[in-house]
Amino acid sequence: MNKGKLIIWFCLVTFIAWGQTDKRYIEVMGSAESEVNPNIIVISVRLKEFEENKEKVTIDKIESDFLNAVTKSKIGNDRITLSDLTLNAIRQRKKDRDFYAQKTYEISFSKTEDVLILLDNLKPVKLDYLDIVKLSHTDIEKYRLETKIQALKAAEKKADALLNSVAAKRGRVLFIDESPDSAIGDWRLRNMDSNVLYNIADNETLGISEIPLKKIKLRFEILARFEIE
User: Fold this and answer.
1) pLDDT digits (tens, 9 = 90+) for 73-100
2) Rounded distance, CA 35 to CA 26, Å?
């Protein structure tokens, strides 16, 4: 290739590149949020020996009371598992003879109403700890996609509003960027001390059925670029 042809080719490539970057477009961010009622709820309950009136309340007694509440709540054995067992790891007053055994159970639910029934039946049981450790939904991916689509539609509406203000119109989409999930909580709730929970439930103005269980919150942002006609 001679020098003259090389100069012409270089100028042509430069012109094409300049034309591509000079394309008129508008770039906007659209966002959307949604809430989903969970149908996968997992509760962790820890039982631990303690002293009452200078007498140790054994793990067997606490576990019996707990399982009675579970049975009263009509929870099947397939929904409850023993997730942790510690018989000799917890000591009090640094005395080898003072062991405080503990057990941790996990219970699975598909309805919030069943959770509230169990909490009501657990009020007389001396629990060491109660926590909702998981909230999810069997169709969570479907809800995620629906929320993303709403975020893209929001970007379209924003672009239309801005362009209409300057007598322009939105053309074909040039670019779509899906940002990472920005608020996929509250999958895990803050730890709840059982005594505090039961105090709320015993309040005359707040019945057990009114204790709020958080929903799954989804939030997505979509960056979209549209051609300006």
Assistant:
1) 999 999 999 987 765 544 444 454 567 8
2) 30
